[in-house]
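Thread: Modeling a multi-component assembly for a lab meeting

Hi all, long-time lurker, first post. My supervisor asked me to bring a structural picture of a complex we are working on to next week's group meeting, and I have zero experience with this. I have the sequence lines for every component (591 residues in total). Could someone generate the structure of the whole assembly? Inputs are pasted exactly as I received them:
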Amino acid sequence: MNTFGWLIFLSSNALVIALTVVCFIRVFRSSEHIHAPLDIDTRDMDEPSPERPDEW
Amino acid sequence: MEIQSIAQSTSRMARPERWATRIGVILAVAGSAVGLGNFLRFPGVVVQNGGGAFMIPYFLALLLLGIPVCWAEWIMGRRAGRLSGLSSCPGLLGVLTRGGKFRYFGVLGLFIPVVIYMWYVYVESWCLAYTWFTLTGDICLGPGGEYTAFFNQFSGESTGEFFSSITVNYVFFLITFFLNFFLIYRGLSRGIEKFCLVAMPLLIIAAILVALRVLTLGTPDLSKPLQNVSEALGYMWNPDWAQLKDPEVWLAACGQIFFSLSVGFGIILTYSSYLTKQDDVVLSGLTASATNEFCEVCLGGLIVIPAAFVFLGMSQMQDVVGASSFSLGFATMPHIFAQMPAGRLFQALFYFLLFLAGITSSLSMLQPAIAFFEEGFNMNRRISVALLGMLTFLGANAVVLTPGLTVLATMDTYASDLGIPLLALSELFLFIFVVKVSTGIQEGGYGANMKLPFWFGFVITYISPVFLLAILGTWFVNKLRPLFDASVEWTPMEPLEKYTMLVMIAFFFFLWLLVKLAWPNMQRRYHRYIQSSEG
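Re: Modeling a multi-component assembly
Sure thing. I ran the full set together rather than chain by chain. Output:
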């Protein structure tokens, strides 16, 4: 690997690791209400409700 | 004194629970973010696009497009969802533009995840099959294993001593396909997400161990001294500046960033539409992106590419990815596990965890179309799921039953590398000209656990659209060059590639028609929601 290769390799990995660590620290310090897509309630598992009267 | 001591002991008791909740949040975000794109697609795309040269446009695309567009999607989705009660991509775009024709751009938000699902579920089934083959000993881990031939015969690229037809492959595809629909039909996608709270850390630990083994491989075959880890890392990271002039490389870098962050799919728009004003979107989006990049660059990039270079050599490695960018992981990984203690156990665990990571991604790809059928045609969830199941089964069968991997590669190229950047561009214009950047920044601040950085407004207004327009424009000019430059000839397309393109175009217009038919129903839902909110 040449000098440019090392430079890009180290800076890319450092950037990604630093970003991940910063995010995790913020998550630990912050309140609730952080979501992952599949964790979000799509509210469509219930039976038809007055809000959705004409479903079939 | 007594009150203080009770308060201290309550605080001590509450702290582990709080930490457990926070770790749960991180794992849930990681579980959703990590998928086959990180460990299987990324290495193949890097090899297809010149190794080291690819990483420069890749990181530029991450910082200037991936993260800003991700935030814009979370913000627009939540805003449109809470103002309208709608969740499908055409509905959300229609509401944001106050019923404008822009809703037809939402067709891309249905088309892309459904088309990607059709081949993604097939690749997912390969992970399940490889878990099975490892446990049964059908893949004999040992030096000189014919892993490329095994994979080619399994995937139907060729026939031979391992597989004479794709029957076994098809059985695994059926299991995976129906498992996905069973989980989503029974509403178990949140359940599988909980399961991934355990599975994802295991996958990351296993990947770190595998990466360490790869980096200590040295020169496994002394008769080929140039096939060593140092040269392999050089292949991936040494920049070849000449490659940067190729618009295909830039478009592929954007496509990979969007693909792995699930940005420009319509998935984030749909899911964020269910959130309330109190829910965070800024830190959620950034944490998902960062975790995803960690798995992709620090783990995915350090496992498959160096191993493929060391075991297969450059020319064979490029032959393998010629069929599909996903092939490399299956032809290469068994070589690494053969060099590890308890390699068989590790291999079975690794492919099974990848299978789970794939399932969390494929389940999320189905939600935009389910939301559309529910809103546009008043179907309940189960009928929407059944209808979508039939539709995707037809498409997925075309991917599995046609010879070779041409259909898969064509769908991947046009839906991921072209369709996603196009939808991302239209979302950018929507954010800038319709929602307005200042309103978007204000909206992002609601419930935020982190402020949007000061540069976000400038980057999303000036840099991201210009960057994406330049890449798409250059790519189109390059493709259409034979029209105005007689010295350049049209690149001939394989017949199967041509038919796949035609079917994809027909499917796009079919969805267009559905959006047109569904719009009056969406309007009725919207008005009902407004009335109930006012009431």
